[in-house]
Amino acid sequence: MEYRVLKNCRVCGSERLREYLNLGRQPLANSLSNSPSGKSKKYPLSVLFCQDCSLSQLSIIVNPEILYKNYPYNSSVSNTFRNHCLELAHSAKMLLAPRIYRGRESKHFALDIASNDGCLLERFRDCGFDVMGVEPSKNLAEKSRLKGIPTANSFWSSNRDYALCDPHKPDVITATNVFAHVHDLEDFCRAVHKNLSKDGIFIIEVPYLTNMIRNNQFDTIYHEHLSYFLLRPLKMVLRFCGLDVFRVEHRDIHGGSIRVYSSREKRKVESSVWMTMNKEERDGFWDFKTYRSYSSRVRKIKSDLGRIISREKKLGKKIFGYGASAKGNTLINYCGITNTDISGIIDDTPDKVGKFTPGASIPILSHNHLDTNHPDYILMTAWNFSSEIKEKTGHLGCRYIYAIPEVRVD
Ligand code: TMP
Ligand code: ZN
Description:
The protein has helices spanning about 65, 80-95, 120-125, 140-145, 185-195, 210-215, 230-240, 270-280, 295-315, 325-335, 370, 385-395, and strands at about 5, 15-25, 40-50, 55-60, 60, 100, 105, 110-115, 130-135, 150, 170-175, 200-205, 225-230, 245-250, 255-265, 320, 345, 365, 375-380, 400, 410. The chain is of the alpha/beta class. A 7-stranded mixed β-sheet has the order 10-9-8-11-12-15-14, sandwiched between helices. The structure holds thymidine-5'-phosphate and zinc ion (ZN). Thymidine-5'-phosphate (TMP) binds near residues 324, 352 and 385.
């Protein structure tokens, strides 16, 4: 089956789901094609709000075997992300008591779920941890093994055995930017509970829904992202599975994320947890009314961006995108931008170069391309890394088009 329709909220089981955004039928945002005439299949893309637990979620679930067959995302390309990972490894270390095994102090053990190319685990290793990754994509698992990181090529599930045994169960399990991809959250968290050491901690990082709504980040909506989280539903699903949230931190990464710490054994619940919950409720994010005007703000971005691009094309200007990200593909396809509007999208991920974006079929080019083909404009398709991209392109003297949070030219 290619996809199935969601009937109940994946956190609380409620049927009281209401749509607040419909982006029409869209191709899978990461399904890059090898030829410019490659046809991409399209699937409905709309977001529903659960009126009982406030989880935002897609109306359909595409078969993960189709979505993750060959996943082009590569964490280590961005410096910003590498630094972010180092900071995460440090803060995990600060929370752990020394580990004593057979009378001697031994290394802590970190396991990363959906470990990608091993970017986060390399940082944990630098902080003195033993590490292990679990990664469903074959090409990325292989990449991570080449860095000397033991990696199981598998989805994370309570039915699988990851060959972890006491007393070597992980002290830390991390799941950064993977929770949004998971349909069966309860099974996922039960697997964490089963595999985590008794006094261990589980750290989740997800883009925070309040930013997606406030800053019109509709481009982060694509078929891989099944859920868009507030703390409220996250806390709920963790509690069902015997994990208690004790700390919440806010980070700038990916347009604004929350880092949620939970544990099997009770720890002192820090004020950040209650402050975040109270603010969500006070700011109206537990109420459908807050989401009503979102769709018209998104439509405005589509018309403003279309207007600017067609005006500049008429003037003969050359426009490139920077960052062949999944979110760039949602933006481009939803806004109806074509490969005559944009000459190419630059990306520093070697695996992406030479391919074509799904739907619009825009060629993905390496950075060198800009030296011979001077752009007049760069469309920031990876706005979450805009400062890094500006550093790399500042010498070209071009201008930048931003679509998020609203359309503007710099
Ligand atoms: P992401 O927002 O999904 O992480 O995607 C960002 C994309 O931008 C990814 O394909 C890598 C690309 N990128 C570059 O090519 N060069 C860069 O300097 C940065 C920061 C990102
Ligand atoms: Zn719900």
